[in-house]
Amino acid sequence: QKEVEQNSGPLSVPEGAIASLNCTYSDRVSQSFFWYRQYSGKSPELIMSIYSNGDKEDGRFTAQLNKASQYVSLLIRDSQPSDSATYLCAVLMYSGGGADGLTFGKGTHLIIQP
Amino acid sequence: KAGVTQTPRYLIKTRGQQVTLSCSPISGHRSVSWYQQTPGQGLQFLFEYFSETQRNKGNFPGRFSGRQFSNSRSEMNVSTLELGDSALYLCASSAGTGVEAFFGQGTRLTVV
Predict the structure, then answer these.
(1) Contact (CB, 8 A) for A9 and A21
(2) Pure H helices in A1-114
(3) Mutate to test the interface with A, among B103, B105, B107, B108 (most CBs of A within 10 A)
(4) Are A110 and A19 in contact (CB under 8 A)?
(5) Spatial contact of A10 and A109, defined as CB atoms under 8 Å apart
(6) Could you say which DSSP state residue A47 is in?
């Protein structure tokens, strides 16, 4: 069973601090990794994509990937109350027939405290 | 640039009926994927279409089917609806497999 694991939270972070969200995945051959943000009652919104080991920065967001450890994370700097949402980690898994489509974790509920 | 459009936004159906959902991808995107989101199971992959061909399929019964037209618009059909099919159905548009995918607003299906 190919899986993506996330801590469901809630993760509570003070405003202005760094929020750190983590994700592990089971498929060693995965090459594409994504972070989505989902507000209650809304559809997921793509925040970051990462394909290579290391860090990728976009504004206040940094995605980190370590394929050897099968670990991907998202850092949110200078957290704002508007960052309060559920963050979904998505990994493109593969099977004998090729890509299986994105496998999502259950999401981490992030709360930014004013 | 227009985003991903899903219609209808809300549906209420009775057990045993069938339903068709529609998705228009971002202009130029040829890949459309469908996902089911429920509180218990989270987001689960249903299937992906690329250039009118189903590329892969998730672990769902045959009651769930789809198709894609030459203009990349896609439809998803669920036959013989069950109560457990109540969910948010999401369509994602991308330029291809493995690259960034963008979701539509979803269709909220309620089966009674």
Answers:
(1) no
(2) none
(3) B103
(4) yes
(5) yes
(6) E
